[in-house]
Here is the input.
Amino acid sequence: MSIKANDFVLEVEGLTVSFDGFKAVNDLSFYVNEGEIRVIIGPNGAGKTTVLDLICGRTQATTGSIKFRGKELTRMKEHEIVHTGVGRKFQNPSIYDDLTVFENLEISYPRGRSVFGALAFKRDKEVIREVEATAETIFLKDDLDKQAGLLSHGQKQWLEIGMLLIQKPDLLMLDEPVAGMSVAERKKTADLLNRITEGRSVLVVEHDMQFVEDIAHRVTVMHQGKVLSEGSMTRVKNDPKVIEVYLGH
Amino acid sequence: MQERAKALFMPRQDLIGFAVLALILIVILPLILDVFRLNLVGKYLTYSFVALGLVLCWGYGGILSLGQGLFFGLGGYCMAMFLKLEASDPVSTKIQSTPGIPDFMDWNQITAIPWWWQPFNSLTLSLIAVVLVPTLFAFIISVAMFKRRVGGVYFAIITQALAAILTILIIGQQGYTGGVNGITDLRTLLGWDIRSDNAKLVLYFVNCILLFGCLLIAQFIRKNKLGRILVAMRDREERVRFSGYDVANFKIFVFCLAAAISSVGGAMFTLQVGFMSPSFVGIVPSIEMVIFCAVGGRLSILGAVYGSLLVNWAKTSFSESFPELWLFAMGALFIGVVMAFPNGLASLFLRYIEPYLPAWYHGKAKPVQPAEVVEKAPLTSTDTQPETATSKSTEKQSDETVPVNSLEGGVYVD
Here is the structure.
């Protein structure tokens, strides 16, 4: 293909991480396009979550490169990676239980991120407008003053997605966003993801095949730290290698 | 939306809390206590600076420090060094082999004031040092620890070790620090005799004003975005980090702030008690200060003050009758508080007292209650309605003052 390198939002090349000799991710390469929803699937232990950890800086790569809009991420600190426009949602809903929904979103709003910036932070109209708009997107408009710990599991997942959205990241990484959700909630989440992809790319790790079919533009199948197959969901589903190691049982 | 836009620095409930505390400390206690007892309360209040720092650092930030005595002590020593130099003028030390230097230096065959004592000839420099030295120390510790992501129990143990190290250092360097006796026999502050009753009274009020200054700073932090980030960090450090915050910087800030507040307490301790010794620096006092904070409620800045007053009053009265048992009682108290009400006295207040306070206490937050009264009133007679409302509020008002007094009663019965 003759696409220029900087047409990709994310370029992962030759990425390897080894934990005491065990290569959780082994010479992995993949590319994510602008505005694409990419889903990574694969059996347990394939290294899917580790890939997200590597991109967001939670884990240091042994070798290889991760370029986000041409910027090398592998040597940046976590918060610097966030500042370049990468947002990460964790597997278990990771929200601030003791704060209200409003405060959860407000903290995630990208202003006043230094100590003195936080001290000088004012809850002005713009912040309130952004928080309320985000809350509406994630179906929590009526729960703004509720303590986040009291939300249902599905609502907590949405809140965390909202906390990422308000940061306006260019790349959104979601680790099993529909785990533990009801069927209705999964449907709503799929709609939500399809709505928010405008102007951003999304990288999702997911097990739920129906959900993957609903949202994925392209799918990367991982197995033992390597890419097993890549392409559209239909193509991947019919790949004999994929059927053998993952979908076949 | 408008409600939310208001930056509520001091909501009604907090304002009433501050006012009640101010009333107790600045009006009631000075009226009913003699100078000796009031000076004792003043001493207890110096610990509440440390407890207040711990509320921010431990309660809000989740950083347990078992070495706050370090900062209290350093602040106290900086003040004591100034006072000692003033007390060691050549006239009053003329019987020494080297007149004009502190007595303990003379006993240890030191013949000149060491260079690092020189700045403490100036009151201004000493006052700056009181806050700056402990804060700088806290900064070095916290940068070294938090940038490397050392936290939790490991951090607590390291702070405890540091408190022990400083104690050993002070005791070991007797010629420069006064050793195990500390810096004693402090007399005047710029010629003003701090041992007189009048001075003790003035110092008590200065202490109160400084305490309220620190309480206001703490309140500002609590109600600011920074306070919410601290809470968020305590619960989900990773989430805060991956929301684009350099978590270590926030920890460093709150740890340094706690140290600075503690150091003010230390300096006021020296002024009010008249000496400073290593017994206020080490492990035991540092842990005691965590207990003051835990008893008062580690999430309540006012609770820190009540906690220190109450535990210290108990310590004074208990250790008079059973000196050996006090440490056991203190340990039992700590375990009891943590097991039974982890958020201390403040949580008891919130659960058992606050819901029964009248509407004026809650302000606009509960406008429903008066409306209910109005709805019910016409059933009987319209005339009785205001009457019941007022009698209800006065009744509840006394309800509100009783527990606070009984809390405080503990302090001045002593």
The CA atoms of residues 173 and 179 of chain B lie 6 Å apart. The interface with chain A takes residues 1, 4-5, 7, 221, 224-226, 228-229, 231-232, 235-236, 238-247, 249-250, 253 of chain B (CB under 8 Å). The radius of gyration of chain B is 24 Å.
